[in-house]
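Blinded run. Sample ID left blank on purpose so nobody reads anything into the name before looking at the predicted structure. Input follows.
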Amino acid sequence: MKRSKDMIISQILDICTTGASKTKIVYQANLNFRTVNPYLELLSKNNLIETICGPITIYKTTGKGMKMLREFKNIQEELPELYEGASTKDK
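Blinded prediction complete.
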């Protein structure tokens, strides 16, 4: 089953809660380096993640992003049949 964009966004926000490199996001969200960029740009533009520049760029979910992540999880719990087979992998 193909994942919806909201499911991918939810996964990225979840991965970035403690801070994550692009490589970590790519592997944990099962994306590739080409497809992850538009998501990171969208989330950054909407202040859902922040970019911390250093030797390795780190992406971290903001307070606004955490609120959205909770809302995504509530929707996924209320309508699980929409998300069956597309849930995030256990960490």
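Unblinding after everyone has recorded impressions. The chain is about 55% helix and 10% strand.
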